[in-house]
Amino acid sequence: MTGFGGFLEKKPYVPPSWASHLTLIPSHTCSIGRFPTPIHKWELPNLPQGTEVWIKREDLTGILLSGNKARKLEFLMADAVAQGADCVITMGGLQSNHCRTTAAAARYLKLDCYLICFVEYPNKDPGLVGNLLIDRLVGAHIKLVPGQAYFDIGPEALFEMFRRKLVAEGKKPYIIPIGASNTLGTWGYIDGIREIEQQIQEENQKIQFDDIVVACGSGGTVAGLAIGSKLSGLNIKIKAFSVTTSRESFVDNIQSKIDELQAGFDLNELVTIQDVQGLGYGFSTTEELKFVKEIATSTGVLLDSVYCGKAAFGMMNDMKANPKKWEGRKVLFIHTGGIYELYNKSDQMLPFAGDLSKLEIDESVSPTA
């Protein structure tokens, strides 16, 4: 199935000229996203002197407001189809943006989708809220496992166990890792840098960004941005804000992808990683949620609370604490999408969500004809 303009089309992949020497170049992509995504000035309040923040709207990549996962899945879904898979397996939390995007993309391509989701109570129906509602509407097969299994058994063993089960049932499964963050998925944001490079060249002002700010959840997006930034010659610094785990684990994760593609540099040349986990992955403080609300009210940009909300919160706090570090810099913030999970935080956000009151109708008002 293909659409107008090549949508849903499998096509050969030609890498950017500056990345053509890398290893493991993908052979094909499947056009399930809508690109390019726009970049616009983001009028955030209380910026350091001379600082400009621009925002790349990856929340507009298509696939149900999927965000950054769409770029990675273009490569992974093409590989699944090329290998003759009839279904895909992936994994994440109950409100995983990645799981929801994978489920929808699989349906586009007539593939079954199995989601292994970590929950506190695996014997209880978690209901229909946020991303989970979309997962169930598009017909994903959802398998609930205790959250502790992630640590006790590990994702690789869980993937393999379930893969063998499906093979025994006569299926041909393809595993998509958490966050679509493997070496193949890294090409999504190598190519994303090509898009940014083209957008910069098309602008009359030829704006030069000093920093890219992005949330770091599984490492693939940061790895692709770093490789693209380095090899393209843009040399934009990548300021990553970790929402899931420690800086140390991400350093090894991202460097391994750089090395596997033989990009030939140390991530510390371009990448800094700052911890903004707060209460932990998927949990939000009242202050963080108020920040999301205030940014929506002041700029019209809606951030999710798990990824880009925490990254923007961390960026603004760092600008306040260390203004000299940011003064005069041009910053490109990557909005990684994922707003559906906010519905899961509605009770927490209700006290400051906005005015709501009854409109009193004057008795003198008469019906219009």
TrEMBL record:
GO cellular component: mitochondrion
Enzyme class: lyase
Catalytic activity: D-cysteine + H2O = hydrogen sulfide + pyruvate + NH4(+) + H(+)
EC number(s) per entry: 4.4.1.15
Keywords: Lyase, Mitochondrion, Pyridoxal phosphate, Transit peptide
Any GO MF annotation of the entry: D-cysteine desulfhydrase activity
Gene3D superfamilies: 3.40.50.1100
NCBIfam families tied to this protein: ACC_deam_rel
Record family assignment: Belongs to the ACC deaminase/D-cysteine desulfhydrase family.
Name under which the protein is recorded: D-cysteine desulfhydrase
Native source species: Dioscorea cayennensis subsp. rotundata (White Guinea yam)
Name of the coding gene: LOC120262889
